[in-house]
Structure formats: C-alpha cells, structure tokens
Design a protein that fits this description.
Blueprint: E1 7-9, E2 12-14, E3 20-26, H1 41-54, E4 58-62, H2 75-89, E5 97-100, H3 104-112, E6 117-120, H4 127-136, E7 140-143, H5 161-179, E8 184-187, H6 196-204, E9 217-218, H7 224-230, H8 238-250, E10 255-258, H9 261-275
Parallel strand pairs: 3-4, 3-10, 4-5, 5-6, 6-7, 7-8, 9-10
Antiparallel strand pairs: 1-2
Length: 278
C-alpha cells in the first residue's frame, strides 16, 4: 500500500506515522453507551478536553443518536445541541473537531463554527453532502451502513460482506473524487447493519480495504457485538474494545473511534510497535 498523505483539517495536519484516535463526544440523551452524560455544554467541553489530554487526536461531536432504532432529530434540535459546544470547544482544544452528521445543512453550519471534518454515516450517498464537502474542501469520513439506524439491525444479509462493502466504497470514492473531494476516510461501519459474524469478518479481513488507498477508520467501541461475545453490559466493555481495536490496527486501521481514550491509547502504542510503525 502507498504511504498515506497527511490529512489537512483546517489549521491542523494529521500524519499517519502512527494510529490516530478519534474521541467520541455524544451530545445526546439516548446514545447506546453514554447517552445523557455530556448533554450540557459545560460537561461536554470538560469531557472533550479530558479526552485530548488523554491522547485523542480528533474530537467527534454528534448531536443525534445512531443507535439501532433511534428516532431522527429535526435539524433545529440537532443544531441546538451541537453549536454551543462546538463554538466553545474550538477555542479550548488544539485538535481538529469532526461533526458526526448525515445532514448537509448541519455539516455546513458546523463547518462555519470551526469543525474541520465531516463524519457521514450514510457514506456520502446524499449529493448535497457531496457538494458541501467539495465546496468546503474538508476531509470526509465515508461510512458504510446497510439501511438506516431505524432498520439496519433487522436481519441484515450479505453474500460476501467484505467485497460488498469494498464495492460500495469504490463507487462512493469515485463520486467523491469526481466532485473534487481530496481527502476521504473510509469506515466499514462496525455494528451498522451487521450481525456478530459480519463484524468479526470485517475486523478479520480489514486489510482488504487497504487496497483502496484511503485512511481506514474503525469504530467498535463498546458495541453490542462485544457484549454478545463477553456477556457484559455496555459499561463494562473496555477490554473487549481494546481487543477489537488492537486487531484492527494490526490489520490496517489508521484511525480508531473510541470512548475510553487513555486505555485505548496505551493498547494502540503496543499494537503500533508490533506493526512496526512506532
């Protein structure tokens, strides 16, 4: 695989000489893992600063839960949740902020307020989101999801899941490149329209996606498949998350999206050393 170019994110540049950490900041009352914990601006900003202190390279802000069966928000409510935090946080941390949204208007407003990356769970399938990303010249996380958060876990089926996801990325990367988007990150979407076995296959064969020559982001943090394997509740899945991200790093992940920054950062240091990039 060719050496990945550094990622320009507004005033920041992220190099891929090690695995990067994206810290999760859910500004929601109903996210599957930490809903309601950081629902006010003060606690959200404090938590984000702690994640940066612990080693996060990117802070990913989301105002709408994408857990299975979640209810979509109005744009007005989503902006009400994210803009106050984003406006304050951009002045208090020195790492890029990504906005986790599939709504082009939300993405545009948040870019105006200082976000530097778009994290789109619908994989740039909305032409208006393609337009926003191209016009603003920002990196985009392009995630694969089968269905929508409301339907994705209702008996998801694939013939060859890894190849199907790769084909999806090939198509969407071509669309993005044709629109002039220069920086594309791909995320196979652990837990988004996938069964336990699907998630394991993705992690096992993550190296297939390196052929696309884009940075790979993986987000298994605290997810249900870890609970199925271990029998543990969402609040007790740190070790399972560490195992998943370590395998992902060795198999080609460049960015991991996690809740537990300090523990995961220590594991990544070892995984990177084994991988020979530290």
């Amino acid at each position: 695989m060719a050496q990945l170019k550094p990622l320009r994110c507004g005033p920041y540049t992220l190099a891929f000489d090690r695995t990067l950490i994206m810290g999760i900041l859910n500004l929601t009352p109903d996210s599957f893992s930490d809903g309601g914990l950081y629902f006010d601006t003060k606690s959200a900003v404090s938590h984000a600063k702690k994640m940066v202190q612990d080693g996060a390279d990117i802070i990913d802000i989301g105002g709408e839960s994408s857990r299975p069966g979640s209810t979509p928000l109005t744009e007005q409510e989503e902006l009400k949740r994210v803009l106050p935090v984003l406006s304050k946080l951009r002045k208090e941390i020195s790492v890029p902020i990504s906005i986790d949204t599939y709504k082009p208007n939300i993405a545009a407003r948040c870019l105006d307020e200082g976000a530097a990356i778009i994290n789109d769970i619908t994989g740039l399938t909305n032409p208006d989101m393609v337009k926003v990303a191209a016009e603003r010249n920002v990196p985009v996380v392009m995630m694969h999801m089968k269905g929508s958060p409301q339907t994705m876990q209702i008996n998801p089926e694939y013939k060859e899941i890894v190849e199907e996801i790769k084909t999806f990325f090939e198509k969407q990367i071509a669309i993005a490149c044709n629109a002039g988007i220069e920086s594309i990150i791909i995320d196979p979407g652990i837990g988004f329209g996938k069964t336990l076995e699907h998630n394991l296959l993705i992690l096992r064969h993550l190296d297939v996606f390196t052929e696309l020559c884009c940075p790979i982001l993986v987000g298994p943090s605290r997810k249900n498949f870890i609970g199925v394997i271990t029998g543990l509740p969402v609040t007790d899945r740190v070790e399972g998350t560490i195992a998943a991200i370590s395998i992902a790093v060795v198999n080609g992940a460049n960015i991991v999206r996690v809740h537990d920054i300090k523990a995961c950062q220590r594991a990544i240091q070892v995984a990177d050393a084994i991988r020979g990039i530290q």
